[in-house]
Structures are given as structure tokens and as C-alpha cells.
Write a structure and sequence with these properties.
- The complex is a heterodimer of chains A (410) and B (188).
- Chain A has 410 residues and is α+β, with helices and mostly antiparallel strands.
- Chain A has twelve helices and 18 strands.
- With 188 residues, chain B is an all-alpha fold.
- Chain B is elongated and about 80 Å long.
- The N and C termini of chain B lie far apart (81 Å).
- The chains are: A alpha+beta (410), B mainly alpha (188).
């Protein structure tokens, strides 16, 4: 049994179900053999390693198997180190060389013989090239279909006006953070105070403002709220911010942790989406995706870890509360967001129907499909459904005010 | 009505010349394309958000490298493919995984026979080509479900082949250990 258990570790283990939900690590060796460490969450891996570490025989076997695995890697991984080159080779060899720039073609020509030689000795490389060609075909299939209802630029601006004459709010994707990177230095529209070394941003009650950081991270302040951080080089992301009130954070993975401090709590993250609500009495943290640790502000080493879909509260002078699961869709309503994480189409349709007071239906075959994404609740329901449909390769049919998600017939 | 290709080309041209608004609209148009692609390739995982984010940044930062706006589709395709394959690489090279494995090794008792280590290359040569192929695809970053499709097999079959390959390796290494031990004891 330890042999099979450790075989998993040796070859990086095997596989996991295609799901975002945490996988249960089971003691049955075959099931452990089928858990793919590279695709597990940090929590699942820790559980697996804790189990291994608790058994002397498993520990020894695991170390031995890692040694064997490393020997395989030592020869193989250098051959596939330059992934871009392999992609270029695949495109070129499948008759799509017109997609390569002159520089890319030159780079490929310099290394082509090396790749061809490697492919003759490693059938796996042939499989990878074929897979990339399939990836490209899939992209081409999606290209003409996933244009979510965009009209010409002038028409889109006109279409943004709602039926009641109000301008539609833009869907707050991370995308806005990406586009804002180019103009970040000039976009600080609600700075209330700038000391020599500190920036403070504040919003009033009922207002919502988004702060886009240089690395693509974003912070959505939900008033009344204020956010402050030490003024730094505009090319760097602040490593620590102080928050009063509520905010939804979308933090890009980075080598350094991103820390949020409130009056009572400290939240340390490494690439994640989460919400924080802090008032005079307590701080509540809700995690949508990724991982983070929550602690008392003055005791950072005594924290609790949250998994996706979990929440905890820190009160003044007290340790973090017990971690509890939450319904993310309801949990982020205060931020005026729909936060879907592995949410079924059935549940999404139900939420959209209730919020927008429209009938949202779906083809039965799509009911159990799951989507992850974040949308503004003030956004247009058709835009939201358009994006959902794009992710599924489906379409939205608007029939007499009823919106229906259907598969696209070939 | 979807954007016509001429409209995409026009937006790309404006974005290439530094028009931030055009870039924003172009990315807003492209984002669901990339999202749909990543969902199709790796499933509706939470990492799709990061992949989309990174691919949008890649397009944003390199838009000025686009020589002809009419080639935006190929440009967007490459961005998506580069990002996807970088993602596969990260499955096993992520710092936290490397650190966790190092911690595991440190805690393990030092009992691996050096003689067996030297003969590891011989042991690995005993792997069947098919088993090696599967293991290499795994180390590239693919899941077994994907590997099964790539080698035209089933998940259960590829898992079993890896398991048997390891068992065979272990038998070989055990035999080598015994041989080495006997050598040491002067029995050979």
C-alpha cells in the first residue's frame, strides 16, 4: 500500500477530477495514485504531504520516488524548456507559418534541427505538437462565435444607455485593470489626501470605486470606505494597504505577498480574489478563490487559512473566529458583485432572474455546466449572459423578453 | 451583431498607435474569446481567471509588436497558446510545490542506496517507450485525462501503465540494491 501511495508522489501523482472544488484525499492507494499534485489546491497537497510525513515507510518511499522522478525530469524537461518555441514549431509545421513574425521564424529556424531530433527520440514531443495544433483549431472555432454582442464603437456607446436613460455601468472585469495599466499614472480620480509618503483613497456611502494597480490587481472600494498605502514607485505594486470599510480585492499572483490590514485583522494573500469588511467592532474576510491567511493584526503568526468559499471574522482583541463556508453569490452582494466560482448555470440563471426581474432560462443540457467569473450587479444582464455563453460555446436567444441560453447548433 | 473583421483591424491599428481607449475596447472584445478558449482546454477552473488576466496583459504589453493590424487574430492566438503552455509548465515548477517536496525529502530518513542511485539510468532504460511517453507528458504538465486523449487510450489505462512502470522500476532498483549489498558483503 505505501508503494502505491508513494508511486503517486514519485511521478507527481496521477490525476484529479476536473473541478474547482477541493478534492478529498483518500487513503485508498489507487485513489491517491490518481490525484495529480500539480493540479491540486495547496490545502489538498498539504493534507497529502501531512499524511505521508506521518508514516515512516511512506516518507522513505516518497523520497526515493522523488529521486526517480527527478531522473526522468533531468533528461526531459530541458528539451521542453522553451514552450514558446514548441508552440511556434507546431504552428509552422501545421501550415500556419504566416502567423509567425520574422523574429519568431528566425528563432525557430535556429533551433528547428534540435526539436526534430528531440521528437525522434521522444514520442511525447510529437504528442505535444499535435495537441498544440488542436489547441489552435479550437481557438479558430471559437473566434467567430465568441463575439459577445459587440456593435461598432459608436453604436456600442449608444447602446450603453439603458432603457430608462441612465448610462449603463461598465462590467467591472479585471480587463479594466489591464487596460488601465497603460494609463495608470494619470488615473487617480478620487485621491483625497497625499502626504509626502502615503496615499489615501476614500469613497462615500453608496459609492463604489475601483483602484487598478500596476500589476493588473484591482481593489473595488464599497463606500463608506478608505484605503491607504505608502506611496511608492508607480511601477511597483504596494505590498501593504490599510482598509476601513469594505472592499473586494482581485490580486494577481506575485512573488511577494499582498497584505491588507484593518483595525483588528491582517490578511496576507498570494494571488487571489477576496472581500474584506471592517468596521469598529470586527473585520470579516470572505475568500472567493486562491488562498490567504487571516490573523489578528498584532499576531500575524497566529493565523487561520481560508479556502475558496470560506469566511472568518476577527474581533478586537480576539483570535480569528472559526472558518465557515459561505455562499459566494450571496456573500458578495454588499460589494454589488456577482461572484461565481464553479457555479452551475442553473444557479446563475436563478440569481440573474431574481436580481434583474427577467426570465432567464437555459437548455437542460447546460444546467450542470459550471462557470467562474465576477460581474457587476449593475451591469447589463444580456452582457453578463453573453459572456457566460461565450465561455460555454453557447448563445443567448432573446425571445419576447425571455432570455435563454442554448447550445449553438453546427 | 459581432464585430466585423474590419472593425477589429481598425481597433488593432488604433491600439498599436497608442490609443488606450481602442486598446481597452479591443481587450474587452477579446477577453471572452480567450476565456472560452481556456475553459475549453483546462475546464472551468479558477485558474482561468489568471490565464485570462495574463493573456490580456501579454496582448496589452506587446500590441506595439504587431506588424500588421490585419494579423490580430494570429497575434491573439499565439498569446493564448503561450499562456496556456506556460500554465502547464507551472503545474510542477511552482515554488510552493518545489519547496514542499524539498521539505518532504528533508524529513525522509537517508536510506537510499548509492549503488542503486548510480544504476538509476539503467533502471530507467527499462521503462517501456509507451510508459515513458506517458510519464513525460505528465511531467510536461498535462493531466491524465488529457494524456489519455493524446495517446488514444483511457484514463484508467494510462494510470495503470504508470503504476506498473513504477512497480517495475522499484523491482529493478530493489534487485540492484540487493546486488550491491551482496557485492559489499563479498558474496559475488
Amino acid at each position: 500500500m505505501p508503494l502505491h501511495f508513494c508511486a503517486t508522489v514519485t511521478f507527481g501523482s496521477v490525476l484529479t477530477a476536473l473541478s474547482d472544488t477541493p478534492q478529498k484525499v483518500m487513503r485508498d492507494p489507487l485513489n491517491i495514485l490518481t490525484n495529480d499534485i500539480g493540479w491540486m489546491t495547496a490545502r489538498e497537497r498539504r493534507r497529502l504531504y501531512d499524511e505521508i510525513s506521518g508514516d515512516h515507510v511512506q516518507l522513505r518511499e516518497s523520497a526515493r520516488l522523488l529521486f526517480v522522478r527527478d531522473a526522468v525530469r533531468a533528461e526531459w524537461l530541458p528539451l521542453v524548456e522553451d514552450r514558446e518555441l514548441i508552440v511556434l514549431f507546431a504552428l509552422d509545421s501545421s501550415g500556419q507559418s504566416e502567423l509567425l513574425t520574422d523574429e519568431e521564424r528566425s528563432r525557430l529556424d535556429d533551433r528547428r534541427h534540435y526539436l526534430v531530433e528531440a521528437m525522434s527520440e521522444h514520442p511525447a514531443l510529437n504528442d505535444i505538437v499535435e495537441r498544440i495544433v488542436e489547441d489552435a483549431r479550437e481557438f479558430e472555432r471559437l473566434w467567430p462565435r465568441t463575439s459577445p454582442g459587440s456593435a461598432p464603437r459608436e453604436d456600442r456607446r449608444e447602446a450603453r444607455r439603458g432603457r430608462d436613460g441612465r448610462a449603463m455601468a461598465r462590467t467591472a472585469w479585471r480587463l479594466t485593470a489591464v487596460a488601465a495599466i497603460a494609463v495608470f499614472a494619470s488615473v487617480m480620480i478620487f485621491v483625497t489626501q497625499r502626504e509626502a509618503s502615503r496615499v489615501t483613497l476614500a469613497v462615500d456611502e453608496g459609492q463604489i470605486r475601483q483602484v487598478n494597480l500596476i500589476d493588473g490587481s484591482s481593489i473595488r472600494l464599497v463606500g463608506p470606505a478608505s484605503l491607504s498605502y505608502r506611496s511608492i514607485d508607480v511601477q511597483e505594486r504596494p505590498g501593504r494597504v490599510s482598509l476601513e470599510g469594505g472592499a473586494y480585492f482581485d490580486v494577481v499572483s506575485g512573488s511577494d505577498p499582498f497584505v491588507v490590514e484593518t483595525r483588528d485583522a491582517r490578511v496576507a494573500v498570494l494571488g487571489t480574489n477576496f472581500g474584506v469588511r471592517a468596521d469598529d467592532r470586527e473585520t470579516t474576510v470572505i475568500l472567493a478563490s486562491g488562498m490567504l491567511a487571516v490573523s489578528r493584526r498584532d499576531r500575524p503568526s497566529e493565523g487561520v487559512e481560508l479556502g475558496p468559499g470560506e469566511s472568518c471574522t476577527v474581533r478586537a482583541g480576539a483570535a480569528p473566529s472559526r472558518v465557515t463556508p459561505v455562499d459566494l453569490v450571496d456573500a458578495f452582494a454588499w460589494a454589488e458583485l456577482f461572484v461565481f466560482r464553479g457555479t452551475s448555470i442553473a444557479e446563475i440563471a436563478d440569481n440573474l432572474s431574481q436580481h434583474y426581474d427577467v426570465v432567464v432560462e437555459f437548455e437542460p443540457a447546460l444546467a450542470d455546466q459550471k462557470i467562474s467569473g465576477t460581474f457587476e450587479r449593475s451591469g447589463d444582464v444580456r452582457e453578463i449572459l453573453g459572456v457566460v455563453a461565450s465561455s460555454l460555446g453557447a448563445q443567448v436567444v432573446d425571445s419576447e423578453g425571455r432570455l435563454r441560453l442554448t447550445s449553438i447548433s453546427d | 451583431m459581432p464585430l466585423q473583421s474590419e472593425q477589429i483591424t481598425a481597433l488593432a491599428e488604433q491600439a498599436m498607435s497608442g490609443d488606450a481607449q481602442a486598446l481597452c475596447e479591443l481587450l474587452e472584445w477579446l477577453e471572452p474569446v480567450h476565456r472560452g478558449f481556456f475553459v475549453k482546454r483546462i475546464g472551468p477552473r479558477s485558474e482561468v481567471d489568471d490565464l485570462v488576466q495574463n493573456s490580456m496583459i501579454r496582448v496589452s504589453q506587446s500590441i506595439s509588436d504587431l506588424r500588421e493590424p490585419s494579423r490580430f487574430r494570429g497575434f491573439a492566438l499565439k498569446a493564448a497558446l503561450f499562456e496556456l503552455h506556460d500554465f502547464y509548465r507551472g503545474r510542477y515548477s511552482a515554488k510552493e510545490i518545489v519547496d514542499e517536496e524539498a521539505g518532504l525529502r528533508e524529513r525522509a530518513p537517508a536510506s537510499f542506496d548509492e549503488a542503486a542511485a548510480l544504476d538509476l539510468e539503467r533502471a530507467l532504460a527499462e521503462l517501456s517507450p509507451h510508459a515513458r511517453r506517458i510519464i513525460e507528458l505528465r511531467e510536461y504538465g498535462y493531466r491524465y485525462a488529457e494524456i489519455a486523449a493524446m495517446v488514444d487510450s483511457t484514463e484508467a489505462a494510462v494510470k495503470m501503465q504508470v503504476r506498473r512502470a513504477f512497480e517495475k522500476l522499484r523491482e529493478i532498483l530493489v534487485c540492484l540494491c540487493i546486488f550491491a549489498l551482496l557485492l559489499l558483503l563479498g558474496r559475488f
